[in-house]
Amino acid sequence: MLKSMLVDYSNPNSLAHRARTRRWEEMVRRFPELGDMRVLDLGGTPQSWTHAPVTPAQVVCVNLDSHHECREGRVTGLVGDACDLPDALRNERFDLVYSNSLMEHVGGHSRRQRFAETVYTGGDLHWVQTPYRYFPVEPHWLFPGMQWLPFRAKVAVVRHWPHGTSRQHRRPPTVTEAAAKAAEVELLSATGMRTYFPHSQIWFERFAGLPKSLVARS
């Protein structure tokens, strides 16, 4: 029941469904010509664009997971690192660089810097969303305040907490695997986001009046 109300995108009353709808509305308002744009999606999948209210003229998704390598209409999925683009894309320039809930996963300060450089050099405009560190519920494991716990306590949550937003956040069988999962996510503050995107506007996506996620946009 908890997962259905929070992260079930097929449930129109869920937090995830309502948040995604509001986010798309804001994005379309910000970029009214989205349907005519060439979009570089860092970390996304071709399947995720089936939920979009507007399909751009072309979308290229870059994802480390080879399962998402495909072409679906105007959307193409390529295997690659968002912090170090494949050779085929390094000289490309898009109308919009888009990323949803990836930046907290790329791994460490230097990798986040490289990710931001990819965003700035990859297109004229950008929309980069990441969960907000100070929202009271950690968004991947749906555990209150998990992001502020000591690392050992985080590992215990990963091993024993039964809720999560995707299969990759289900309970791992060993402490070593749980530690790797806990270390994989580093949520950002507004100050951190401004550090990586000093020339961007930071928009606060809110839920119940509280900032839920951050969007660096131009």
From TrEMBL:
Enzyme Commission code: 2.1.1.-
CDD domains hit by this protein: AdoMet_MTases
InterPro entries: SAM-dependent_MTases_sf
Recorded superkingdom: Bacteria
Single Gene Ontology MF annotation: methyltransferase activity
Signal peptide feature range: none
Keywords on record: Methyltransferase, Transferase
One GO-annotated biological process of the protein: methylation
Name of protein: Class I SAM-dependent methyltransferase
